[in-house]
Amino acid sequence: MEWNKALELSILSHRAHYLSFIAWALDVTLETIAEIGVNKGESSHIFRTHFPNAHLFLIDPWQPCSEYLISGTPISRKLKHYEKAYRNTLNLFQNDPHTTILRKTSLEATEHTPNNLDLVFIDANHTYTHVKENSLAWLPKVRPGGIVAGHDYDDTIPMFSGVKSAVDEIFKGKILIGKDRLWIYKKPNIAPYTL
How far apart are CA 69 and CA 52, in angstroms? Predict the structure, then answer.
């Protein structure tokens, strides 16, 4: 395995390990996880390793949209790369009965996932508009006491500033900031809840 790939997998593993620590510290059992923004399924595979009994909902349209292409954070501009990433994800999870792959936009997928999810992890389009839209759409899908989290909470890197702005606006400082630019919000245990 080339060094850059090994380093990337190490970082992904560290991210999942940190999330599992946070879940333990916050006393949250992770049995249902929705990952918004899957790409090649590498983070998804790490989630599976750290949470072997959880049902994973892997959500990604695996195609570029015009807003994503001008966002400054696209994985690629070529459709063939998205198709290859989709096939890679299918190959990783083809024999996993506890994984549901949804080739849909984040908003479309809300209608195809159960309520009361334990964790929603958002790492898709990093623009302010999309991070806000995804956070607001998925927060009601998380059970009381569950977690909404995401990646790239960092305004020192211009292409990630939309993540921080949207998360700060929605969650009003009630988040934990972790290693590898993670942000984590624990939904209150009582309903109705307020941010």
Answer: 34
